[in-house]
Amino acid sequence: MSAVPLLSARGVTRDYPLPPSGPMRRRGVLRAVRGVDVDVAPGEVVALIGESGSGKSTLVRILLALDAATAGTVAFEGRAVRPGGARSTRWLRRRTGIVLQDPYGSLDPRMTVGRTVAEPLRALRIPGDHRAMVEEVLERVGLSPSRAHQYPHELSGGQRQRVALARAIVHGPTLLVGDEPLSALDVTVRAQILDLLRGLHAERGTALLLVSHDIGLVQNFADRVLVMHDGAVVEEGSAVRVLGAPRHPYTRELVSAVPAVPGPPAAAGVGDEGDPPVPASTTHLPVRRH
Question: PROSITE patterns given for it (predicted)?
Answer without folding.
Answer: ABC_TRANSPORTER_1 (PS00211), ABC_TRANSPORTER_2 (PS50893)
